[in-house]
Amino acid sequence: METIEVSGRPPKNENKTVLVIGKLDGVHLGHQFLLQEAKKKVVNGEQLAVYSFSDHPKWVLKGNEEYKYTLTSPQHKREILDHFGVDRYYHVQFTEEYARTSPETFVFEHLSQMKLSRIVVGEDFRFGKGRGSDAEGLAKLCSQIDIPVTILPVVQLNGEKISSTTIRKLVQQGHMEAAQAMLSRPFELSGVVEKGEKLGRELGFPTLNLGQIAEYVEVKPAVYLGVVELDETHEHYYTLISAGYRPTVNGDSYKVEAYLLDYSGDLYNQKVRIKFLRHLRDEVDFNGIEALVEQMKEDEREARLILGID
Predict the structure, then answer these.
(1) What spatial distance separates the first Cα and last Cα of the chain, rounded to whole Å?
(2) What's the CA gap between 183 and 25, in Å, rounded?
(3) What does each C-alpha distance from 267 to 187, 218, 229, 235, 246 come to in angstroms?
């Protein structure tokens, strides 16, 4: 999949293209529906492309911290788009200047030079300065330059619209099964294993300390059942995940640590992915280390029972 960085007008394109437009954070079931339907529109050697923004407008324009963080890293997002058959990914730098682009400029000066055979958006799509136009407005403007626009309904789960905002809240509340249902895969953090304080090793539970995850939505402080994937070898291990501030050992910062079941080895400086399957319990400030260790043993027993492993 080709990635094109865009800071203003996109470059001219020589291939007829079906284009999906949207932030697509998380590439959840709603986004997947757009991609699948767009793929069906691709004919006669055309290409499928995605036009997506680097940052959420509510963060760039209003400083809303809720929208500063992401569900998927840029690399993971590209991997998912590639999996869905996207040929070209326009990564658009969303800035205050870009936000001043009018709907007319966006259509007549940006989209017009991209050799588009069709555009696909969701019915909740909005664009242009001040979110001044919507999907119907896009269709009307694009009709003037002979680009058909397909507007698709939002995808719902239990009568609720599936959205990146909803999934972020689920992750922040520790509802990993619900997040997985909307994403169609476990929520995951991708980072590099850093050296920690080695306290887990001293307690009999050696953990990896996941670094370089500041861009992600913060997972609720709790203990989770999950899977760790090692990027180098693609090995997978069941794991207990501790996310939070470690109050029992006087922790002073938020950390995500993972205790891999039935694994021994050194993972320092390796890239890994931690995938969250299930919330086991909230973070607790135990009355001393011994109580913490006993609970960790119980966490492992429960995890093995759930997984059906000895």
Answers:
(1) 42
(2) 10
(3) 22, 23, 11, 12, 22
Percent of the chain with pLDDT over 70: 97
Within 10 angstroms of residue 246's Cβ, the number of other Cβ atoms is 20
Residues 124-179: pLDDT tens digits?
Answer: 999 888 778 999 999 999 999 999 999 999 999 999 999 999 999 999 999 999 99
pTM of the model: 0.92
Q: What is the mean pLDDT of residues 115-120?
A: 97
Pairing assessment for the beta strands 156-157 and 208-211 based on DSSP bridges: unpaired
Amino acid at 304: R
Read off the amino acid at residue 250: N
For 29-67, what is each residue's pLDDT tens digit?
Answer: 999 999 999 999 999 889 999 999 888 777 887 777 778
pLDDT of amino acid 274? 98
* Euclidean distance between CA atoms 292 and 75, whole angstroms: 36
